């Protein structure tokens, strides 16, 4: 039953574009009414009609310790009693900075902002300032927030300049961004050779999450590192998703490739608005007020967001955390593959730790073209049938699923049982 969600959605659309404050939440790719959520606890969310779901969206990554974790709620309550924002430095911000720098290999200095978009926008501005160059390289299917400079899609040919990924992005801006196939090191080498001395930065999701999950091919990240070293290009890892998700020190520690700058978000805010960027001291020292590169934010380092972030990270420091997340991911991956085989359903599961994506594809998915070639209409049916069985998945083929420490063995078993039923429904063409 979705009466309340439907009524709310109808009303919301009169006031908010698409009825949502972020487009993917409108479930347009699924052709269904989005569920308006009333509350969440642990691995479960409940919509305004009282329907309860096992949640694999996790607010798109932040909720790695589960919703409404008692220690996070208590930390927020304590912080709020002391005020909600001062616009002045606090000891807690220093504690969070210390934790981030100690955890993430590439961080010598870090600055907190309010979103992943702000983090990548600032890191790219810094890279351009530090190199005196204007062009940047990103990858097809890579999403780095909605700043003009990264809302760019590949030009007609691999080496042609980017074209606006959205109306309102000036072509002059888009042309400075080259978008290349993910995992294609040769294309990057060609682009760098095509624009000698002009590339300021390469920004990459070290594990792609925004075309669905696509892991880096062996040698891809190390190849980018070597290329950047050879040509004085700033290597930026966008770890907004992977930071503290795929390892305590992020993908850079998991794959042992250290970028010059790192962007963080999601998990480090524990569900409150936090982003961060940081890296080499010689680069970060160029940021105002020390250096000339400007970036600012009224609510950056906000006491509530910092409290939720600190509480979340402290929970993640507990022994066995990442082994547990890895094991939960492994159980689901093996289970989905087995259930699909049982139903004679071609399925690819791309997984790194506790982030993964199911593609209805006959062969491995290693880049955006591969992801787009998967059976997205079958994914849409899969989404609906899983929702009807109480499993809440990302409403898009091109997103990552997330497991939290709160997902129980029963949650995983229920999810796998539901997937087995759904795979056979799909195989038999049942609606
Ligand atoms: P935000 O500005 O949404 O906090 O972060 C932007 C961003 C930057 N980098 C990466 C790798 C990201 O995944 C994101 C945001 N991720 C999307 C989901 N894939 C957020 C969900 C949404 O847009 O509503």
Structural overview:
With 431 residues, the chain is α/β, with parallel strands linked by helices. The chain has two domains: 176 residues, Aspartate Aminotransferase, domain 1; 247 residues, Aspartate Aminotransferase, domain 2 (3-Layer(aba) Sandwich). Helix content is 38%, strand content 15%. The protein contains 14 helices and 16 strands. The protein has a seven-stranded mixed sheet with strand order 4-12-11-10-9-5-8, with helices on both faces. Strands 1-2-3-15 form a four-stranded mixed sheet. Strands 13-14-16 form a three-stranded antiparallel sheet, with helices on one face. Strand 2 and strand 3 form a beta hairpin. Helix 3 packs parallel to helix 10 and helix 11 packs parallel to helix 14. The longest helix has 22 residues. The radius of gyration is 21 Å and the shape is globular. The relative contact order is 0.16. The mean pLDDT is 97. The structure holds ligand KE4. Ligand KE4 binds next to helix 4.
Biggest sheet descriptor: 7 strands, mixed
Q: What is the name of the CATH superfamily of the largest domain?
A: Type I PLP-dependent aspartate aminotransferase-like (Major domain)
Count of helix runs: 14
Return the string of H and E elements: HEEEHHEHEEEHEHEHEHEEHHHEEHHEEH
